[in-house]
């Protein structure tokens, strides 16, 4: 017969261990199963109640789900009540069993007894599925007009759920919902206003209709505000704050973007904002909602001031909850009225130091939004001070924010460098790689600060405690500007004098190398720096050799490779060493910045433009015929050794280097013996332009040049090097476009008659006409293996309109015939730049599509640059069906939205 | 809207769990565990709001019991805080001086009260008197 519910609960509570509890539950479950099997009617509702308790303890209970349905189907109220309760607890909308209850629900909704109808509405509102919602919507809609307020309010909230599940039913409920707004009963009003809000969020038409009801809403709110004491709905002296909040929220939706309604509601908003008492939580909740509404509706200056003042009061409140919502709201408001928020800056900064993480997070976000050129110094100082004492888990966030602020608003470079050193000196490794990279670019671009920077870093490094970022930057700078440590070059006014010997500088690198905390990346940095120092500090050469040597046996390939290569340079190639380890050319800041802004870092208009005038004419002057140029390229890539024209390898310094690099010596056919050009030759991959200046090499190899850590020249020439610090991670990130463009540029120019420098990227002229081998060859350049991915597919024009051209190149990764990588390039043919450029694609079911982030969202005018994007496709029906894709491209011209669509069905066969 | 409501004691035992979104049982247990961990060690001076995954939890402690509501990130925190208090007042009234044991032994009643107070993840009735009266009417039906 089993025990009573109460006894079972007692038995469970009496258990001392989890095992004991499991025993009790197992016994109880066995009893329940038996009793369910016997179809015991008398105790069914008690059994289901027990089951619910067992469920709450976390034990499986699905064996009892059917019992709930049986209870619901039975006639009496007590059975139904437990049945519905069990249904809501033990089942949810995803279970098939739930469908069985639809009919019972329908009957109960139409039941004459209000309590039973209420139960059904409650269950429906809490767990109905989309199908049930659709089936039962007419019943629920009918109940919205029921003369019992209890039923009406439940039906209204039930409709909320139905509309959420089936958004197309919005229209069906709009009229009855508006009807609810005139209801006298508070409960119905609350539910009705909620329903209206839900409808407005889902449909523009409903919103329009609701705008006609502004007066009604205002009147309800007014009644609440001016009415006297209403004991039933009173919370801390305020009449039904919940209803007030609901109405304010609906007003927000209605007033947003509609000056007329905003105007109608402004009086009552002002009244709520001024008359609501802010000494209790309920009052503050209303004020908070009111502020949000004021800030969202169409601007009324006076009201906004009022709202910001309320937030100011909140901020000064001692209650943390209130301060939290104030910060939260100020974050949203700051874009509307920065000045007003600035006034509370000191308070906000204090909040960053609060002990409560919720407050800290909000405050930090707000500070971040508040910083500008004028206050960056003070705020950064505050934040830096706080960084020293903040919780470890908060540091990463804070560091990232400080770095980005410093970067964005630095008044001058020296200050920027100073702050970055301070941040890096903080314990823990929270400075992100790209931040370091930016720092290096900035340092490299400030020749007058080279000395200062390296000395400051050296000084900071004396208290080094394993901070990786600091070590990397310091090692890099010492490698590049080490001599300035010793010779006090470019000493700034007021700079503390520092006496360093050459061996002190090497000491620093040694410390880093020997430290167990240094990662292999840092070690690789150190090796390169040592190589550089060997020529800056000739007296230390022997020591440097000794330091490089141990890594010859390193288990990390990159370190081993560097060590061996550098060792060879030091021992055998003294004559070219000085040239090799020259200071890095100044890293192109503009390129780097725009690359960064582009996200993935792709083709840059400035880059292309600069490349053409320099590279173009030079190449023409040197005028190698096309086949030869191509061959050289191929040689370099070790693609087609057989076809190389025979050349007597010249024993120039460059050859050594190249053979060292494993590249074909033929590539150096143009390498002159002038050691100055050795570097250029390597960099320019056998470009027949020995006179080309450094900027040309930069443009030919933007990724390498922009990579501040390409300090090891060898990495530049050996793109397959796996662990080049930053270089490796940068290489894939700085996508294909710049290289492809500029190289193609060259091929094309050298093969044709002289042309005036072009503005546009040549890629679009080349498009489909250029022999395909070039494309695949060049595509191969950026993938890590030297052998390019095999591809025999021509470039196609996927979409062409008057203003836009979309090209697709295809790469077929070897080994997987199903997948294809499409390199899409977008070219603007009109004379206006496109902004907010978004590319969307849809494919049939047998294809799987994955869009990589685009290289940018701004497309300069007249083909002055392009956006590229990789699309990975997997054709699950490879060989049976060919590719098919629909495109949609959205962008803005002069702020106006434009959409272009098209279908691509001209994919090459066999993809 | 309210995603779920939890009532837990300091040891993390769930005394009431009401979900307005469908979740797997295992996911529910994980949530309950996480929410408990999140709120149990917070200083009473701290805010009653904690960001939780993509939502936020509004919680309030009454003696050894934590009442937590998980709501949308754009919802009015203060209002939900107030509604937790209203719920507690209703319970207090119904059980006349409620304690944890009342909630354990009458857990089904607590669910019924909650169903009168919140429906479909939205506040349904804000009058304490109306709910108490309703409950006694329902009791009479038994």
Notable traits:
heterodimer; A: 911 residues; alpha+beta; Leucine-rich Repeat Variant; Substrate Binding Domain Of Dnak, Chain:A, Domain 2; five-stranded antiparallel beta sheet; three-stranded antiparallel beta sheet; 59% helix; B: 142 residues; Beta-Lactamase; two-stranded antiparallel ribbon; 5 helices; 26% strand; globular; golgi apparatus (chain A); Clathrin/coatomer_adapt-like_N (chain A); ARM-type_fold (chain A)
Describe the model.
The complex is a heterodimer of chains A (911) and B (142). Chain A is built from 44 helices and 10 strands. Among the domains of chain A are: 1-91, no CATH class; 98-209, Alpha Horseshoe (Leucine-rich Repeat Variant); 213-297, Substrate Binding Domain Of Dnak, Chain:A, Domain 2; 446-585, no CATH class; 796-904, Sandwich (Immunoglobulin-like), CATH 2.60.40.1230. In chain A, helix 10 (170-180) runs parallel beside helix 12. With 142 residues, chain B is α+β, with helices and mostly antiparallel strands. Chain B has a single domain, classed as Beta-Lactamase (2-Layer Sandwich). In chain B, 46% of the residues lie in helices and 26% in strands. Chain B has 5 helices and 7 strands; from the N terminus they run E-E-H-E-E-E-H-H-H-E-E-H. In chain B, the strands form 2 sheets. Chain B has a 5-stranded antiparallel β-sheet with strand order 2-1-5-4-3, sandwiched between helices. In chain B, helix 2 crosses helix 5 and helix 4 crosses helix 5 (128-141). The longest helix of chain B has 18 residues, at 77-94. The radius of gyration of chain B is 15 Å and the shape is globular. The termini of chain B are far apart. The model of chain B has no long low-confidence stretch (mean pLDDT 92). At the A-B interface, helix 1, helix 3, helix 5, helix 7 and helix 9 of A face strand 2, strand 3, helix 2, helix 4 and strand 7 of B.
